[in-house]
Specification:
Twelve copies of one chain form a homododecamer. Chain A is built from one helix and three strands. Chain A has a three-stranded antiparallel β-sheet. In chain A, about 20% of the residues lie in helices and about 55% in strands. Chain A has about 70 residues and is an alpha+beta fold. The longest helix of chain A has 13 residues. Chain A is elongated, with a radius of gyration of 14 Å. Chain A starts with 5 loop residues before the first strand and ends with a strand. Chain A has one domain: 2-Layer Sandwich (Dodecin subunit-like). The interface between E and F is medium-sized, with 16 and 12 residues. Strand 2 of chain A pairs antiparallel with strand 2 of chain E, so a sheet runs across the interface.
């Protein structure tokens, strides 16, 4: 971060593969409508269970992006 | 929640009737500009006092909605 | 509370009527298998949204009950 | 709030009717000895259970009032 | 979650492979004595170190399951 | 902790002697129905007052025990 | 607690003997100007060190007392 | 702090000049009715906005003072 | 706050001058695209260091604004 | 505390006797390599259990010491 | 943990591969100057984004090590 | 932050002038024994009061610095 102003949004991504991939899914989706995504912070990691298996991870993150 | 990506916004609703109604007011207003509202979480409940009576409840909630 | 030992469980109740009723639903259900329920504490209030209306409230509570 | 100084007190109200009414009970009582009550914030919601029913709600709130 | 009542338990799973696998180990074990496991939330991620290597990850999760 | 799975319960013990003894009371009681109790963490320390004296300490702890 | 209204104050007691005694000191002092002290909750435990010895414990507690 | 007992109050001060000055305003006001003010801790910093400018800072602090 | 609905956004402002000025920078920038900014709350204060000097303060705030 | 700069370290002490003694053990050990230890704050109290008895208390504290 | 005294340090590791690997990087580096590293706890997971991709994970951990 | 490993220390600085200056005092002192100081985060702002005036601000910060 430098002397710019940043806006922070909160997004939940999900993935059947891993908690790290759920973060990437949230960022990929957010990058389709926003530019200059700069950093993320994990807020919460949870997920759904089917037949005693993790069906998918759901990771809530905050994403900071630079306002032009 | 399934494998979609969700965005979360934070909104404060108010009501002279009840704290539950303040939640509904925040959701009603948000539903006018956003589609696919899916869930809410209460962040804070407060309110204003007039003549030792609750004048109105103000409830801050997070609302999650599915990104298409 | 007096000099007994208490166990605490965490339960989520839901209700289409109110957040207070969701608390009661969780207690009613817990009372079917446990005796001596003594107090509750609200941990989290959330819910689902359908068509910009609160579909049902979901309240997570802790319930303390006396061990005989 | 404007440029006044406010003092904040912490009070627990209770009610057999509802959690919202427990808030009002705490404010009513506080209003008997203090003037200029301005706002409240809910700190904790809990209660006692009798025969698997909510016997009464107990809500801990902070109340802000203007110092003259 | 719908209008059912859910109970939440807290479990620590461990794994020499990954933090995600530690979550799965906790769920697998819990699924042997409980039915209808529905979701999990990560509470804490920690682990033991041997010779400056992660010996195993230990992840504390909450698991929600539907009461019949 | 090693590669076992642990379950965590929450218990409140009380004692007229000391806060440390209230912890022991909670563990003693829990040990009557559970085996393999392994560690505890203090969650909250409180108590009742009679005539401006601590009548008894009440300590809420989490207890971890190994699932066989 | 029953259907009364309770006020909560925050007090720091100290003791060269023990953390439990610091709690008692805070209650003893508060009992000189307030009646109906009912319960306490520990907020923070700290203290001063002299020559690598605990010089005295300082325990910050909340005290609840019934309003007449 | 030494072996005295301290009481803690919560106060909100405001200032059009700075957040540090809002702290001083809260202390100045409190000093008019209380003696032996000893320390403060910042709990929350917020403020009002007019025309995209900070209209005034509002800082909530705890103030500790020695009971005689 | 009255009976309107408010939306809350999270923004990081920075300033080489002071932490108060970093708040103002975040508000100034937000005011260029949003109307009716009403209040702010400080979430986090941090900054970068160059040659053991604060290079700039970065303050993360929440801003509430009224929805028409 | 006066106008000096203080460094804070985090240490876990343990004791088979009491939680207060575990604090002293952490301070005693720290005092062997550091001078000017000034205050401590308790961060976490936990411990190990053997045969349903507290085997030893483990208290995590922060210790502040003055930098010369 | 047994009856030793442990010191806890806070370290941020980073990795382009995974959040688990970022933990290992922090431990590997710390192991070059410290002996007897015993356990870690994750404090915060964040990272940088480049072109809507996780550029690297940054995980802040606490590491406990035994003092001889 | 890039792919380096960072260590975080906790320091309390004080100043009779301002809370921002107390941050700078903590950084200045830390810079005398450590190189590569990179960022800081405010943990707590407090201070001492003399004659109802802020005698000095004391700001507890975390400082991150790059390990070579």
């Amino acid at each position: 971060m430098n002397d710019h102003v940043y806006k922070i949004i909160e997004v939940v991504g999900s993935s059947t593969k891993s908690s790290d991939d759920a973060i990437q899914q949230a960022i990929t989706k957010s990058g389709k409508s926003l530019r200059n995504l700069d950093w993320f912070e994990v807020v919460e990691t949870r997920g759904h269970i089917t037949d005693a298996k993790v069906a998918h991870f759901q990771v809530k993150i905050k994403i900071g992006f630079r306002l032009d």
